[in-house]
Design goal:
- Helices cover 38% and strands 18% of the residues.
- The protein has 347 residues and is an alpha/beta fold.
- Strands 3-4-2-1-5-12-11-6-7-10-8-9 form a 12-stranded mixed β-sheet, sandwiched between helices.
- Helix 1 (18-28) packs across helix 13 and helix 8 (192-208) packs across helix 9 (235-249).
- The chain is globular.
- The mean pLDDT is 94.
Amino acid sequence: MPSLPVIAITLGEPAGIGPEIALFAAWKLRHEARPVLIGDYNFLKKLAAAINPEIRLLRVAKERLADIRSLVSTESLAVMDCPLSRGITPGLPDEANATAILNGLDLAIQGATEKYFDAIATAPIQKSSINAAGIPFTGHTEYLADKMQADQVVMLLSGRVTSPPDTPSQLLRVALATTHLPLKQVSDAISQASLMQTIRILHGALQNQFGIARPCILVSGLNPHAGENGYLGREEIDTIMPVIQSARQNGMQVEGPFPADTLFLPHHLNRADCFLVMYHDQGLPVLKYATFGQGVNITLGLPVIRTSVDHGTALDIAKKGTGLADCGSMIEAIRIAAEMASRKRAV
């Protein structure tokens, strides 16, 4: 029987809920995957005692990265020790820990690139704390792309629809043509070349990483009412429609551009394998409402598998104490990372 995939789990902002949800999810899923936590061992040991005294941790020095597959088990959670510079006050990020946080992420990248890990699952980072330390940082997605020298990556969020309460259960996937950009920069960031590459990456991932033989991708417009034939903007006419036509000529099932305000209606939901929207807040509010804390962020176009939660650091919850954070998204992030890794092995 093939061994279970080894998943590196980074803790994100230590003053947020990341460490708690990572610990809880990793322990819960230790029979479905082989989770490896990357963070401060002493901090995690204290946190584990507060969360669940049954959680057992095994400290692993960073120098033993190459041995990690022989050290993981169902009896304890392996922790690759990346000590923080200062102690943690829940709810209060400390910029002094910024370098240590990124060092942990770098270790996960190294381990995945060198195939000691089969995938990476990340807890949320507090971007403002990293920037306050004088380190330019716009998000995990951009950081990973830069570190792995990926020409272009695609942010895909996925989750099981749970809202409104009586909605039939189905999987919703939303991909972004642009990621973390000010709204005024979005139009200039979308070119025919970049949009075509986004569709190629998305189409290939849906086939190879999600097992969909002929994926159907529905594409939004950029402007209200998809531009109304140029009256509300020409991006649909000059950029989006030509790319969709080219994709269709290359055998891909791509349709649009559709007005964003009607893109997620039931008759589209029932036939789309993925929706491609033009910017962050055009699609993600819908997904986060519909999946209600179960969404997963997946980065396509990297040489390794990376998933993450679909929420932030929740400093306000962390400040109130342990036991209050919802671990659903972290559980799904690890589970999907393991599923994608297993599918990749089988190819």
